[in-house]
TrEMBL record:
It is found in: Membrane. This is Protein DETOXIFICATION. Residues 12-21 have a biased composition (Acidic residues). Signal peptide: none annotated. Keywords: Membrane, Transmembrane, Transmembrane helix. Its main location: membrane.
Length: 498
């Protein structure tokens, strides 16, 4: 039996020809699925999970780095645990969101460059990202250095603020390790070469736990030892990744002219800032909700129940973390290679995959809603409050399952600026007022603040999903091709001048 034109296109793409692309450009995703059938869906899924699987594990291991410090600190004293947790909230979450946002410009540019066959362009983009992220880390250093007065200004307990400030200063080197880690990860991620990244991060986690045990318990260095272990393990991961791309991927620092560098920096910086705003609008939304919840009556129960639900939500979101990354890679690769409908079909498969992941999570929450709170709290009042918010946790999981579609389309296509404005409108103009109305005026307490935030999330998902649905993907592929063609013309001009 002869294979369908769509299946032939996938075969050609994997073999490197890609000559027969018209078949994939003439059908909407549902018809593509009907024509290509299960084999086409499986092949696209394999491409997605080739990236998503290792990146998901990498996310779990990276999150465990921070969690392990809090576990060790919790065995020192309650005050030191609070200090470490507070330090991470101020000195790690805030800069990490900014660096992830700035670095996500590489998802767009490196992914499209790799799809267009301009592999040497990836090195240029990675170098520019390293420069921008290192400068950004330097500019954000005062947040670490002045953590104590910042925390005191926010009303934090003096003893906790002082300890958190000292710990923050000591983990400042880790900020610059992150600035190196993100560009290298994006460089490899755009090429779907992420398996060894997971091994390196896992090795860093083992090293981190070993150093924590030695510094905290054997040498009795307390939080100073925890900070030293965090810095050493973070830099070990960053250096190992850099050595990996230099030795095994023949990475070389690319030379380019001053005029082309300035043009590239300006274009790259605009996309990086747009990406940072998109991610910051999203990441800070959760922090604002926690602050508002802390103003409610009986804040211990309100914040405690919300924190438990958010903790579960974060772990579930880790399942979508790899899908988000794979979505960026697949969409940007296909747009860069000019395969508009292939990018659209990839989003279709990613959407189905996300919903398939969300379904068992929803069932688990529904079945265990009266039992899982016991794992996190001994207070019966707090347990009842958490169980009473299970339906909101389920709604949050459903909205999270839509996120890979939005991230893949916006980052893969380079729409970060548009989505940043939409995030600001939905989260801060609509969501925050609704949190006050539902939490305070309607007296729904923590359910009200979370419900208000979810309303903003829902509107954001609806607007961006409508944009994705209406997008002319052929035009997006043309834009990506023009961007890559401009690089070729600049390179030819520079080569002729040498």
């Amino acid at each position: 039996m002869e294979s369908s034109p769509l299946l032939k296109h996938i075969d050609d793409e994997e073999e490197g020809n890609g000559d027969d692309q018209e078949a994939l450009k003439e059908h909407p995703p549902l018809k593509e699925f009907k024509e290509g059938g299960w084999p086409l869906f499986v092949r696209e899924s394999k491409k997605i999970w080739r990236v998503a699987g290792p990146i998901t594990l990498n996310g779990f291991f990276s999150y465990a780095l921070n969690s392990s410090i809090q576990i060790f600190a919790g065995h020192l004293s309650a005050v030191e645990l609070s200090a470490v947790s507070t330090a991470f909230l101020v000195t790690t979450n805030f800069p990490t969101v900014v660096l992830i946002g700035l670095g996500s410009a590489l998802d767009t540019l490196c992914g499209q460059a790799f799809g267009a066959g301009q592999v040497e362009r990836l090195a240029v983009y990675m170098q520019l990202s390293l420069i921008i992220l290192f400068l950004s880390a330097l500019l954000m250093s005062p947040v670490y250095i002045f953590a104590t007065p910042i925390l005191r200004l926010l009303g934090q307990d003096k003893e906790i603020a002082v300890l958190a400030g000292k710990f923050s200063v000591r983990i400042l080197p880790q900020l610059f390790a992150m600035a190196m880690t993100f560009p290298v990860q994006k460089y490899l991620q755009a090429q779907s070469k992420v398996s060894l990244l997971t091994c390196i991060t896992f090795g860093g986690l083992l090293l981190h736990v070993g150093l924590l045990g030695m510094f905290v318990y054997v040498f009795d260095w307390g939080l100073n030892g925890a900070a030293a272990a965090y810095n050493l393990s973070s830099w070990a991961v960053s250096i190992a990744q850099l050595v990996y791309i230099i030795v095994w991927h023949n990475f070389a620092w690319t030379k380019f002219s001053l005029s082309s560098t300035l043009n590239e920096v300006w274009s790259f910086l605009k996309l990086s800032l747009a990406s940072a705003m998109m991610f910051c609008m999203d990441g800070w939304n959760m922090m604002v909700m926690m602050v508002i919840t802390g103003l409610l009556n009986n804040p211990a129960i309100a914040v405690g129940s919300l924190s438990i639900c958010m903790n579960i939500n974060i772990w579930i979101n880790m399942l979508f973390f790899g899908i988000n990354a794979a979505s960026c890679v697949r969409v940007s690769n296909e747009l860069g290679s000019g395969n508009a409908k292939a990018a659209k079909y990839s989003i279709f498969v990613i959407g189905l995959t996300s919903l398939a992941i969300a379904f068992p999570c929803l069932v688990t929450i529904l079945v265990t809603r009266d039992y899982f709170p016991v794992l996190f709290a001994s207070s019966e009042e707090l347990q009842r409050a958490v169980a009473d918010m299970a339906h909101l946790l389920m709604a949050s999981v459903v909205l999270s399952s839509i996120q890979p579609i939005i991230i893949g389309a916006s980052v893969g296509g380079g729409w970060q600026g548009i989505v940043a404005y939409i995030n600001f409108l939905c989260y801060y103009i609509l969501g925050i007022p609704l949190q006050f109305i539902m939490g305070f005026l309607l007296h729904w307490n923590a359910k009200g603040t979370w419900g208000g935030m979810l309303c903003g999330l829902l509107l954001q998902k609806l607007i961006v999903s409508a944009i994705v649905w209406k997008t002319n993907w052929k035009d997006e592929a043309i834009k990506a091709s023009k961007r890559m063609q401009l690089w070729v013309e600049q390179k030819d001009t520079i080569d002729s001048q040498i």
